[in-house]
Amino acid sequence: RIAYVNGRYRPVTDTAIGIEDRGFQFADGVYEVWSVRAGRFLDHEGHRARLERSLNELRIPLPVGFPALDVILHEIVRRNRIEDGLVYLQVTRGVARRDHPFPPGPVRPTLVVTARALDLKAADARAAQGVGVITRPDLRWKRCDIKTVNLLPNVLAKQAAREAGAHEAWLVDESGHVTEGSSTNAWILTGEGVLVTRQTDEKILWGVTRLAIKALAEQEGLRIEERAFTVEEALRAREAFITSATSFVTPVVSIDGRPVANGAPGSVSMRLRALYLEAAERV
Ligand code: PLP
Fold first, then answer.
1. DSSP 13
2. Domain boundaries in the chain?
3. CATH number given to 2-118
4. Mind telling me which GO cellular component terms the entry cites (predicted)?
C-alpha cells in the first residue's frame, strides 16, 4: 500500500511522522473519509466541504490548495489500484516542541492520505442481514460537529459493541436521547412512517451520507423530522438504520439485544440504501 505523506508517495510501512507531531500528542488534527466505488468518489464535494469546515474551526491551514488536494486523492486511489474502498485523509497542526498552545512560529501542518480496498460483497451481506447495536453513554466533548482525530470515546464504545457481539454502539446523551453511533449517524422510521434523525447540532458529526439520504428520502416523499429520539422510541420504531460513508445505509435489527420491529431489515431502509448506491453510480 502506498501513502501520501507531506508531499511524497511512499509505501505505508516506510513512512514516518515526527514524534512531536501534535496529532500524536494532543489529537490536534482533523480527518476525512471518502468512499470509493467503481473507482469513483462518493459525495466528493460534501466531504471536501466538511474538511474545510473542520480545519477552519480549529484554525489549521491545509498545506496544499484544494485543487492539489484533489490530485492527491485521485493519485492515491490510482497508485493503490482501488476499485471499491475508502480514502483516509488526516491533517494535524504539525510538529513542534510539546506545549499546549498553538506553536508560536509558522509550522507546516502534517498531511497524510491513505487508501484501502473494502469488500463490498461483505458489506452488502451485512446490510441484507441487518446489524445489532448496543447503547452506551456519550462521553465525548461538546464539539462533535468537528471531525477531529480525538476519537477515544468512540473507540471505547465501538470496542464495547464488538465485545457484546454487536456492530455499532449508539451513544446516549444525559437526557436519554441518542446522539449518533460511534462512527455512524442514527435513524429510525416511526410507526407513523416518519423518518427521524437528530438535528445537526454540536452533539453529532454532520454526516455527509446523512445529508444525501435526507435528500433522497425527501425525493421519495417521506416525511422527515430532524430531532432527537430516545432508545425507547427506537425500540418502538418500525425500522432503524445507520448511515456513513463506508456503510452507506445499514439496517439496525436489534438494540441492546431487543429486536426492532420483527427483527429483520426494514424495506424503507433497504430502499434508501439501493437508491443511494444507484445515485452514486450515476455521478
Ligand atoms: N458520526 C460519526 C461520529 C462518524 O465518525 C461518522 C463517520 O465516520 C459519521 C457520523 C458518518 O458521517 P459520514 O456519513 O460523513 O461518513
1. G
2. 2-118, 123-282
3. 3.30.470.10
4. cytosol
What angle, rounded to 10 degrees, do the helices at 267-282 and 120-129 form? 160
| ipTM of the prediction | 0.99
Q: Is 244 in the pocket of ligand 1 (CB under 6 A)?
A: yes
* 38 CA from centroid of ligand 1 (Å): 21
Query: With a threshold of 0.95, does the pTM exceed it?
Result: yes
Please identify, by atom number, the ligand 1 atom nearest to the C-alpha of residue 35.
16
Residue with cell 450515476: 282
User: In this predicted model, what pLDDT tens digit does every residue of 3-59 receive, in sequence order?
Assistant: 999 999 999 999 999 999 999 999 999 999 999 999 999 999 999 999 999 999 999
Residues belonging to the active site: 147
Number of other residues whose CB lies within 10 A of the CB of residue 236: 13
For residue 58 the three cell numbers come to 480549529
**Cα distance between residue 208 and residue 278, in whole Å:** 17
CB count within 10 Å of CB 115 equals 25
CATH of region 123-282? 3.20.10.10
Ligand 1, atom nearest to 154 Cα: 3
185 CA distance to ligand 1 middle (Å): 6
> What are the grid coordinates assigned to 182, written together?
460511534
CA 226 to chain centre: 19
